[in-house]
Design a protein that fits this description.
By secondary structure, the protein is α/β, with parallel strands linked by helices. The protein is built from 14 helices and 24 strands.
Length: 458
């Protein structure tokens, strides 16, 4: 597949990394020649320095025979015009644009993106994706990472194991025998900064970070088995009243169960807009790092503090201050992945990586055929993939134990009809089944081959 990626920032670079690693023909376009050089030096991609929306620049990037264009520059307007040029001049079949301004995303204006108006096939909103990620973190406060699959019936949980975890030093195979009715499976372990797919004989140790796939109904029991308390979030303080904070506050207001929400926003204009847009939420104008203001927001009684300003360092420090003041848990938005190693020493409970959420959303639309969902883990180290089995797939009709999966791949769940099953070695995979599996990044191309999700299905 030939893909043009416009924008060589964090999101564009990660998408280029994914697609070039899967042997696609990728060209990166950016107005910043240094960013283009960084991409071409580190990745197997071609690079063009220039304005992404200029027809001559897209022509040099190979737009005349491109299969897809992904417009992920920092400008919404450039992304929109790029897709228009890609359609009108070069007839590129599939166009994806990242749009941030909420006005462009309002449902009543959705006709704007029809082929005869502004021809964009998929609109990705980073703020919307991040807000949804924040709400998932709040719904599973004991997990540092969460995602849902199979229409919400299966949950990915990232759990950090403490010294008092009841199942430490127990082989995973023995855990399966002990909790035979539990529809949950450990699919990934991060130990000493290294992520890997575990073998049945591997044990769990304190300070491990594990990734589980668990049936929605078994999530509370799963958390209990791994030593985590299940709690509800009745009082939430949000630091940052921009698009993300506002979207989270609106969603919490709309919940059937009452959640008391307070928002702290430093910018007076943003604070006023948030106060006008929210009904039951208290909006405080001021610095989220100010201890007096945090006390006024009553963070000592808050079940969770969510720091989602546009400054990573403010989010980190605000989370630390809120925890020191007595907040039950802290969730921090971090753009810079190198700062994630500070979360443990700073006792921050969970984080949201906007790049990872946006990349996962774009990947889901790139693999448009029988791959129904993709979630990127860590620094693009692994993926959790939801895919439907085709009649032509090499795995159709085989038992799981007989399928030659790569070592870095584990099947976490199988959906047959309306039933979500915990996979066993003898579970037979049939046409129409939906499989959710964990795959290390290097093994993703082989996984796609097994599902036969090739360019024919994009």
């Amino acid at each position: 597949m030939k893909v043009i990626i416009c924008g060589a920032g964090q999101v564009g670079w990660q998408i280029a990394r994914h697609l070039s690693g899967e042997r696609n023909d990728v060209t990166v376009v950016d107005n910043d020649a240094d960013l283009v050089r960084r991409a071409t030096d580190a990745l197997d991609v071609q690079g063009i320095a220039g304005h992404a929306s200029y027809p001559d620049v897209l022509d040099r990037a190979g737009a005349r025979d491109a299969d897809m264009i992904i417009a992920a520059t920092h400008s919404d307007e450039v992304n929109m015009v790029t897709c228009q040029v890609a359609h009108s001049v070069f007839a590129i079949p599939r166009k994806i644009a990242r749009l941030r301004a909420q006005s462009y995303l309002t449902a009543i204006y959705s006709d704007l993106y029809r082929r005869d108006h502004m021809p964009i096939d998929v609109v990705i909103s980073p703020e919307k994706e991040v807000a949804e990620a924040a709400l998932r973190r709040l719904s599973a406060p004991a997990a540092f990472d969460t995602q849902s699959f199979l229409d919400g019936r299966l949950h990915l949980l990232g759990i950090a194991l403490d010294d008092d975890c009841p199942v430490l030093n127990t082989p995973l195979k023995q855990l399966t025998d002990l909790f035979s009715t539990l529809r949950a499976l450990v699919v990934g372990i991060r130990r000493k900064e290294r992520l890997f797919a575990p073998e049945p004989g591997d044990q769990l140790f304190a300070d491990d970070q594990i990734y589980l796939l668990a049936h929605r109904d078994d999530v509370p029991r799963t958390l209990d088995i791994f030593g985590k308390e299940v709690s509800t979030q009745e009082r939430v303080v949000i630091i940052g009243g921009g698009n993300v904070g506002l979207a989270v506050a609106r969603a919490l207001e709309a919940r059937a169960e009452r959640v008391r929400v307070k928002v702290i926003e430093r910018n007076r204009r943003c604070a006023e807009l948030a106060a006008d847009a929210l009904e039951r939420t208290i909006v405080l104008h001021g610095d989220g790092l100010n201890m007096d203001l945090l006390q006024e927001a009553n963070v000592a009684r808050a079940d969770a503090v969510l720091a989602v300003t546009d400054d990573d360092k403010v989010n980190l420090l605000a989370s630390v201050r809120a925890k020191s003041a007595g907040a039950g848990m802290s969730i921090c938005l971090i753009n810079d992945p190198t700062l994630q190693t500070l979360l443990g020493p700073l006792h921050i409970d969970a984080y949201i990586n906007p790049r990872s959420t946006t990349v996962s959303s774009i990947l889901r639309h790139i693999r448009h055929g029988r791959v129904r969902g993709v979630y990127s883990i860590g620094d693009a180290e692994a993926e959790v993939i939801e895919a439907q089995v085709l009649s032509t797939s090499p795995i159709a009709g085989q038992a799981i134990r007989d399928i030659d999966f790569p070592e870095g791949v584990l099947v976490g769940a199988v959906q047959k009809g309306d039933k979500v099953l915990k996979p066993q070695g003898g579970t037979r995979i049939e046409e129409g089944d939906v499989i959710v599996l964990f795959a290390m990044a290097a093994d993703v191309p082989e996984v796609e081959r097994l599902f036969q999700v090739s360019i024919d299905f994009f």
